[in-house]
Design a protein that fits this description.
Distance between the termini: 40 Å
Number of strands: 11
Oligomer: single chain
Helix content: under 10%
Largest sheet: 7 strands, mixed
Radius of gyration: 14 Å
Order of helices and strands: EEEEEEEEEEE
Strand content: over 45%
Number of helices: 0
Length: 119
């Protein structure tokens, strides 16, 4: 069973920065894509950023402020969030597409980490 453990959330003032981490552990063959989603109170979960290792993509709302990176040796993905705005307040979830030796591909989610940006 694969586990994704997130860390780095917290409370920050507008304009500040936070760095989220998500480490994958367990038995698997490889991790294909990794990414971040977020869900604000009363809203649908939305995609924030993703990386396949060779490319990165961002939602328009965070482009230029957030940076996703990945350490394949540690099976860890990071999200550096700069110039934070109150509208970035949400629970942030890590997501990974994991490949198993059987060839089976499965999507996994972290437990979520709260990010709160005060005005």
């Amino acid at each position: 069973q694969v586990q994704l453990v997130e860390s780095g959330g917290g409370l920050v003032q507008a304009g500040g920065s936070l760095r989220l981490s998500c480490a994958a552990s367990g038995r698997f063959f490889s991790i294909n894509t990794m990414g971040w989603y977020r869900q604000a109170p009363g809203k649908e979960r939305e995609w924030v950023a993703g990386t396949s290792g060779s490319s990165t993509n961002y939602a328009d709302s965070v482009k230029g402020r957030f940076t996703i990176s990945r350490d394949n040796a540690k099976n860890t993905v990071y999200l550096q969030m700069n110039s934070l705005k109150p509208e970035d307040t949400a629970v942030y979830y890590c997501n990974a597409a994991v490949a198993y030796t059987t060839g089976f591909l499965r999507e996994h989610w972290g437990q979520g980490t709260q990010v709160t940006v005060s005005p």
